[in-house]
Amino acid sequence: MAQVGKLNYTDAKLGAPTSGQQTTRIIFNTIENPGTTSSLEFFKSFQGLTPGQTNLAASKLDSMESMVIKEILLLQLSSAGASNFFGGSVQQTLDVVIGNQTVVKDLPIQFNSNTTGQAFDRLHFNGGFPTDEAATPTSTFQVVGPVSIRLLTDIVLPPQVNFYVRINSNAGVYGTGAVVCALSGYGKIFSAGASF
């Protein structure tokens, strides 16, 4: 089922409006100064965040909005604004929880802890490693931000349902800057009339 059809089907089953402006949708959330921790939860806290740090006010979409997640992006920034390794070289997994269901469970962000083995992300050259590391013939785990995970299945974020993204690790080093999670895909936003 195409993403448009799946979104319309889910909206209809939930009684949500199926009309609305179709759009490319990216939602994001920032955690400031996360330090070293074994768990990060994005889209849980919005207090004190500016429009440049999040584009939501709550951990759910508005009543007239819905979205299909096609890609998950993770970025770690230093306090100076430079892109850092996401979580250092620590093994990490990702969960996506919508309502009370875990719809993505223990998705590995990295597989390896040294320069041997294959990259998890096969879409980017050498697993996203910087070009000075690309001369080596073996791929390494993806540690350079942004980490980009393309999903093979369409995950629907229905209207008015709480959701969050959790990163699990064994003492991931996330630094004193900020970490960002963005969900990218197709969505519907409220349409006030039939004129646009």
Report on the architecture of this protein.
There is one protein chain. With 196 residues, the protein is mostly beta strands. The chain has one domain. It has one helix and nine strands, in the order αβββββββββ. Strands 1, 3, 4, 7 and 9 form a five-stranded antiparallel β-sheet that branches. Strands 2-8-5-6 form a four-stranded antiparallel β-sheet, with no helix packed on it. The radius of gyration is 18 Å and the shape is globular.
Q: How many domains in all?
A: 1
Please state the overall shape, judged from the principal axes of the Cα atoms: globular
Biggest sheet architecture:
5 strands, antiparallel
Beta-strand segment tally = 9
Q: What structural class do you assign from the helix and strand content?
A: mainly beta
Helix content: under 10%
Name the beta content range.
35-45%
**SSE sequence, one letter per element:** HEEEEEEEEE
* Average pLDDT score: 78
- Give the termini separation: 27 Å
The low-confidence runs, each spanning 5 or more residues with pLDDT under 50, are 111-144
Q: Rg to the nearest angstrom?
A: 18 Å
DSSP helical segment count: 1
